[in-house]
Amino acid sequence: MPYFIYILKCADKSLYAGCTNNLERRLKQHNTSKRGAHYTKIRRPVVLKYFEKFNTLLEARRRETEIKKWRREKKLKLIKSKKP
């Protein structure tokens, strides 16, 4: 089963990074679900700006942790380098 890390752009222009095994479902949850990430729930709508695919959850989580530590400028540079 593949895993994905992703970066969303929120309505307030902030960025959110996450991890999932079903990118389409998770994006829908971020935009419509009453459950899930509080951060995006109050900043809807969100738009997928970037993603990467991994073979294991461990790899995906490591990459997610790495990206979450980055400053906004570095995340934007990554987004510009590779569109979803």
Automatic annotation (TrEMBL):
Pfam families: GIY-YIG. InterPro entries: GIY-YIG_endonuc, GIY-YIG_endonuc_sf, UPF0213_domain. Residues 1-77 form the GIY-YIG domain. Belongs to the UPF0213 family. This is GIY-YIG domain-containing protein. The lineage of its organism: Bacteria, Candidatus Liptoniibacteriota.
